[in-house]
Design brief:
It is built from 10 helices and 9 strands. With about 300 residues, the chain is of the alpha+beta class. The protein is globular.
């Protein structure tokens, strides 16, 4: 049963007297989602509401029915795949004989993405902005480090930036749903202040200097600079001391909004975990929001 007040308060209520009534109500809600009859604000509450209700009543979440399975006989791997309505792509590879579980979420945003088209308008950003953003995503709105939060869950975490991607990862032997929830929380919001950016800028500049002490590193990027002069490939992934100094709060916010949208991201989990349990966690983040047009 649904109730929608079109004036001020918008809400959804579900019968809890029986599973039959609950399933009927959920199916009505799913039909509304499929037909796009709900406004964005209401949809943002509907998906997590369905997940919570089915979890509390210990019944299968119909939102999970969209997952596809494929068995790769040559390597003996069962892979589960789905894409949420917000665009997040998910691949799950359960392995019951494994002790450790590994999760990684990747955005299509790397060091070469400094000159982009947004809704047909060109934007230019300083070299090293993807790597700078990688550093800042690990800091929450209270200035706390997400690395410590992963440690409290008994897991290891890290991140890296390449030419075309930025990835955040964890490995754990327990509390897989909690780690996935923390990973998704970390990449779904960001906080920037002038003070924190200034502090991080000094850290990255020291990192750049450290890389310059590596002969192999300098040889590799020196070759790229000569092969592809005047292109983003000629720039260090971390940028230069000068380009890092040019990065502003607005630059970071704009790139986070563009490239950390779920439609630009991919989540992979492999190891010893329950597929439905993981999907229940992921579905809580299936919120509708405008998809950016980025080229």
């Amino acid at each position: 049963n649904k109730g929608i007040n079109k004036d001020d308060n918008k809400y959804i209520t579900f019968h809890k007297k029986s599973h039959m009534k609950t399933n009927i109500c959920i199916n009505c809600a799913l039909n509304l989602i499929d037909k796009d009859k709900l406004n964005r604000d209401l949809s943002n509450h509907l998906v997590p509401a369905i997940s919570r209700l089915t979890m509390n009543l210990n019944i299968r979440n119909p939102l999970l029915d969209s997952i596809k399975e494929k068995y790769y006989e040559s390597v003996g791997e069962q892979v589960y795949f789905t894409r949420l309505s917000n665009g997040l792509t998910i691949h799950l590879i359960p392995k019951e004989d494994y002790y450790e579980t590994y999760g990684i979420i990747t955005t299509k945003f790397g060091s070469v993405d400094t000159r982009i088209l947004v809704n047909g308008n060109e934007r230019q950003y300083p070299a090293g902005i993807a790597h700078f953003l990688e550093h800042k995503v690990f800091e929450d709105e209270n200035g706390q480090d997400y690395l410590k939060k992963f440690v409290h869950l008994g897991s290891e975490s890290n991140a890296f930036t390449s030419f075309t991607k930025t990835s955040y990862l964890f490995s754990t032997t327990s509390k897989v749903p909690e780690n996935i929830q923390l990973l998704l929380e970390m990449v779904s919001k960001a906080s920037f202040t002038e003070k924190s950016i200034s502090k991080e800028r000094e850290i990255i500049q020291q990192e750049i200097g450290m890389y310059q002490d590596s002969p192999d590193y300098r040889l590799f990027f020196g070759a790229l600079e000569n092969l592809y002069p005047g292109t983003p490939l000629a720039d260090d992934i971390a940028g230069t001391r000068e380009s890092i100094s040019d990065i502003t709060i607005d630059n970071l916010r704009e790139n986070f909004d563009l490239f950390y949208h779920p439609s630009q991201m991919h989540l992979l989990v492999i190891g010893n975990f329950d597929v439905d349990e993981v999907l229940q966690v992921v579905k809580k983040y299936d919120l509708t929001s405008p998809r950016p047009s980025v080229e």
